[in-house]
Specification:
Blueprint: E1 4-5, E2 30-38, E3 41-47, H1 59-67, E4 74-79, H2 85-93, E5 97-103, H3 106-118, E6 128-130, E7 143-148, H4 156-166, E8 170-181, H5 182-197, E9 201-206, E10 209-215
Parallel strand pairs: 1-2, 4-5, 4-7, 5-6, 7-8
Antiparallel strand pairs: 2-3, 8-10, 9-10
Helix pairs in contact: 1-2, 4-5
């Protein structure tokens, strides 16, 4: 099915798609464009049915982007990247950081690749991965940071697995940073982070969300 790029804020509806964490989507791939002002900079993103938060950048992602702690160089994984907001903003702020994008949703990865170009960036095709969690990463790959807006709609166990497996892909002193509403799953996720890493702190409290951080020590 060919893609159809529509004007921003197009109100035409499309058939209901599978969950945003499904690998494949059967809804029409009608691409729209949204704008966002993040970390003092304007960005544009292509969106479509079948991906998370297709009408605007969700509040949780905004809170994570505005408060994430990033090394000036190294490797960072945007895990469950959706259409690429976190990693694209990160790369704009820290151009020396090597950003890897990963999501299980094939459509999300297609949009991420488009959004990288839309925002004037140059990434290798191999740096955007359609993968279930860490399935396409070799066991010896390491990151200095992993950023995650966890797919809580997919179930608590999946989120727990993402936290647990993250530890194996972090360098020493590398960090896992997660955003969630504290009263809607965040408290449970932060306890899991403390169990796996032996530590967890709160980077920011904002709009009911918290950004939790654990260090691989």
């Amino acid at each position: 099915m060919s893609e159809q790029i529509k004007s921003k804020n197009n109100s035409n509806s499309s058939p209901k798609a599978e969950h945003y964490y499904s690998k494949k989507q059967s809804s029409r791939f009608d691409i729209d464009e949204i704008e966002a002002f993040l970390r003092g900079t304007e960005f544009k993103f292509y969106v479509a049915p079948g991906v998370f938060s297709k009408t605007k950048v969700d509040r949780g992602t905004e809170v994570l982007v505005e408060n994430m702690i990033i090394p000036e160089s190294g490797r960072v994984l945007d895990l469950g990247c959706g259409y690429g907001v976190v990693g694209i903003v990160l790369k704009r702020l820290f151009p020396d950081v090597n950003v890897i994008f990963s999501d299980s949703n094939q459509r999300a990865i297609i949009l991420t690749r488009k959004n990288i170009k839309l925002n004037g960036m140059n990434f290798k095709f191999s740096e955007t991965l359609c993968a279930d969690k860490f399935s396409k990463l070799s066991c010896d790959e390491k990151f200095d940071g992993i950023l995650l807006n966890p797919p809580q709609s997919a179930g608590k166990q999946l989120c727990f697995d993402m936290i647990t497996e993250s530890k194996n892909f972090l360098n020493v002193d590398g960090t896992l940073q997660i955003v969630a509403r504290h009263t809607k799953g965040g408290k449970t996720l932060s306890k899991k982070m403390e169990e796996i890493f032996g530590n967890v702190d709160v980077v920011k409290r904002q709009s009911g969300y918290r950004v939790y951080i654990s260090k691989n020590i």
